[in-house]
Each structure stands twice: as structure tokens, then as C-alpha cells.
Amino acid sequence: KMSLHPSSVVDYFRGNEERFLEPRSWIGLLEQLHFHSFAMGILLLTLTHLLLFVPVSMRVKAFGICGAFAFGILGELSGWAVRYLSPVFAYLKIASFLCLQGVILWLMIVVARALWLSSPSAYSGGEGGPQRSVVRELAPVDREADPFAQVHQDKPRHRRDDRVRGHPQAQ
After folding, report:
1. What is the Rg, in whole angstroms, of the alpha carbon atoms belonging to the chain?
2. Where are the alpha helices (DSSP H) in the chain?
3. CA distance linking residue 120 with residue 56, whole number of Å
4. pLDDT tens digits for range 30-73
């Protein structure tokens, strides 16, 4: 329907009598915005969430996350601008689309590279995975200082709890 040429973008949103194309209606643009916002939001949320686990600087992560969402929003809103403000915004629509695709490609490459190379992250202690157990590092609960521990300690236990495999009283 639309190519990367500005006249194609203008024809798509504003219509073209020679090619028998109707201009996009307000309802049509709203439906497109609704579906694109949901689908692109889920995609960008997933990719940028995975970026948080990649061992790169916080500045790179911030630029990647902000760039992805900014170009996504700009791409959706520039279609409205082409339709209702000026055909000049077709250049913005094309530029934001290309930048969004570039950021998505970059996000996929960075995350895939981190997975492929088993790069350490903020959640692992070294090469390729956790080096220490979080459970072993937990401090023992101070039952006198923790009011919730007292509540659970005073609660009667059910017989079913005693039958858990490996429990000392299970036999």
C-alpha cells in the first residue's frame, strides 16, 4: 500500500483521485493507532526489557529504550500529521519508520549477541550464569524483630504440610 517514497505516503493518508484512493478517515486512523500502539508496545516492551539484562552501560540502555519508544510514537503520530496538517510530514513518517526499524534490529542483535556469548549481566556473578546461590546468602530471619514471622509462627500447621516429601515428620 505504501512505499518509502513521500508521494506514496501522502497518497496513502490524503488519498489520490487519479489512483482512486480515498483519504484515511479519522476513525480509520484511530483504529490503526489503537492496534499499532498495542502490538508495537508489546514488542518494544519485550525487547527493551531484555536489553536491561545485557551488560552495556546504563546510558546505552537509556538511549535504546527512549529511542525505541520515541520513534514508535513519532511514527504513529506522523501519519496523523500527514493527513491533517501537511504533506511535508511524509518525510518525518519515513524517517521515523526507518529509525524505528533500525532500533528494533539493533535491540535484537544486542540481545542475541549477549545470549550467544553468554555475557555476564547484573544478575549473574560471572561467565554465563549465576555463580552464587541467592538462597544461601539470605540472612536468617530474626523472629523477634519481624512481626510477620511471629504471626506465621503462631499459626497452627495443617496435617497436609507434614506429608511433604523430605519433611522430617513425613514418615
Report:
1. 27
2. 6-14, 26-51, 58-84, 89-116, 134-137, 147-154, 159-162
3. 10
4. 998 999 999 999 999 999 999 998 988 999 999 999 999 999 99
**pTM of the model as a whole:** 0.66
Neighbours of 81 (CB within 10 A): 17
Return phi, psi of residue 114, to 5°.
-65, -40
Q: Which three cell numbers stand for residue 154?
A: 503462631
Contact call for residues 10 and 19 (beta carbons, < 8 A): no
Find out whether 67 and 44 touch, Cβ atoms under 8 Å.
no
d(Cα 104, Cα 8) in Å, to the nearest integer?
A: 24
Phi then psi dihedrals of residue 126, to 5 deg:
-175, -145
Which among 87, 82, 103 has a CA at the least distance from the CA of 40? 103
